[in-house]
From TrEMBL:
It comes from Bizionia paragorgiae. It comes from the Bacteria. This is Phenylacetic acid degradation protein. CDD domains: LbH_paaY_like. Gene3D superfamilies: Hexapeptide repeat proteins. SUPFAM superfamilies: Trimeric LpxA-like enzymes. Pfam families: Hexapep (PF00132). InterPro entries: Hexapep (IPR001451), Transf_Hexapept/Carb_Anhydrase (IPR050484), Trimer_LpxA-like_sf (IPR011004).
Amino acid sequence: MIYKFKGYTPVVHESSFVHPLAAVTGNVIIGKNCYIGPGAAIRGDWGQIILEDGVNVQENCTVHMFPGKSIVLKESAHVGHGAIIHGANLGRNCLIGMNSVIMDDAEIGDECIVGAMAFVKAETKIPRRSLVVGNPAKVVKEVSDDMISWKTAGTKLYQQLPADCHETLEAVEPLREVPKDLPKQEDFYKTLQDFRKNN
């Protein structure tokens, strides 16, 4: 659902996909090839939220802020299932792990990886290419070239997903039994360990 609020209508590039069960409200600008999953809430009711090209905000994520703030999720930022971005800015090609919480005025640098369930305190500044874990979150090491290559490859899957959804997603009634000719889905993703073995 897309909602106008106090005169602000969200802007969504036609190449991006916002799931019908997501809610995008107010002063939100979504660039090219972005994916917004079901249950996501992007609330630009109190300030502007910009998603640059290639950003994905996955299922059950929240993006919001305190009044008077504006935030940017830079190109190819990847926000995993259930994460909360509250008044924080995300750098280019970063990964925010599942169920992480990034608090107000935090700055996540370009190509950072924030581990699942991390809690990044308000006003924390995370340098570029940092691997961040824990509660409270701390930098544990630098992100390696192969880690960022793996992350980039995973984000490319989400940058293809909007086109796939526009082309094939449709609401249907469920089948009542499994078809005998049910095709096997393609195996096109590798874990970091498999990625390292093959590269």
